[in-house]
Amino acid sequence: MPLDNRDYMRTSPGKPQRWLPGWTPLHSIIGLNIIVFAMQSLGLLSEAGATGHKLGVSIQSLMEGRFWSIITYMFVHDEPLHLIGNMLLIGFFGFRLQALVGARSFVLIYIVSGVIGACLEMVIGYYARAGSGPDIIGASACFCGVMMAYASILPDENIIERVYFILPINARLWTLASGLMALEAILGASTLLWAFAADHWGQNAYFAHIGGALAGWNYVRLMGYGGTPMTYERLWRERQPTRQRRRREVARIRRERATPEFDEEALRRSRQTPHRNSIPLMDEVDRVLDKINTHGMETLSDDERRLLDAASRDLSRRKSTTGKP
């Protein structure tokens, strides 16, 4: 019989084949950025003035009712180098971050970083420069959020970069990411305090980059990453209080059930089990106690509960008659 005719080789009707195998949200984001830039180049997305863009975001655009611009600005770039640089960096860090946190969390980190970054840039620009300022465009805030999220999860990973594609630099990932954000903060502050800096390199949205990085860092912290690295020793220490509470609970139950009355039914059932002398009985008791320690009291069957009752009362009876356990 040919392989295609066998049931286990056929495609399940409930799981249709993907039209692009291996396609992920990261590919969709990069593809959307490229499509938007192509539309810009063809003149399909006209600018909204000398200082803004139709899909860019600013306080003025939000006041005009273009609320969608807080999302669309992330997919707009003003020149090819701007697009290529952002897409290369997002692809490099995004591929690894998506593999660690999943597609859904990756998309949320990308969007949240962009939104928080734009909001921080607009607020600081409004109060520091006393005006709305030009529209913000570009995915740099999203890239900073993706990079900082990845650096928070794997801070000790070594990244080899080449400055101007010539000088190699071997740096710890967290050191590289935090150093880059510190540089962004210095450059951003200089544009607010120094007119020369504002004229020469003040066109970049430095505070959007910082806001995006903080959003990405905080997002993965809320997911449980970025704290003390998990080790077997730490896991064992954290589980000790739980193990001790379970032991105390078992001891309390045994004390409560160790009454002077003897459970004849439990003893009869235990004697009906073949070869249940004192040693096999304690083996069974140890097995039940291990089960309680691992899964809790609620997982015991009625026979196992009666076995514990019989064993504890038998020990109590032997103590009272012999004076020794």
Note down, in words, how this protein is organized.
The chain has 325 residues and is mainly alpha-helical. It folds into two domains: 23-222, Up-down Bundle (Rhomboid-like fold), CATH 1.20.1540.10; 232-322, no CATH class. 64% of the residues lie in helices and 4% in strands. It contains 13 helices and two strands. The chain has helices at residues 25-41, 59-63, 69-72, 80-101, 103-129, 140-153, 173-193, 195-200, 206-222, 232-257, 264-272, 278-295, 302-322; strands at 158-163, 167-172. Strands 1-2 form a two-stranded antiparallel sheet. α1 (25-41) runs antiparallel to α4 (80-101) and α12 (278-295) crosses α13.
Please outline what is shown here:
The protein is mainly α.
Keywords:
single chain, 325 residues, Rhomboid-like fold, two-stranded antiparallel sheet, 13 helices, 2 strands, elongated
| Largest sheet report | 2 strands, antiparallel
Task: Give the number of helices.
Answer: 13
The structural class is: mainly alpha
The proportion of residues forming helix, as a percent range, comes to 55-70%
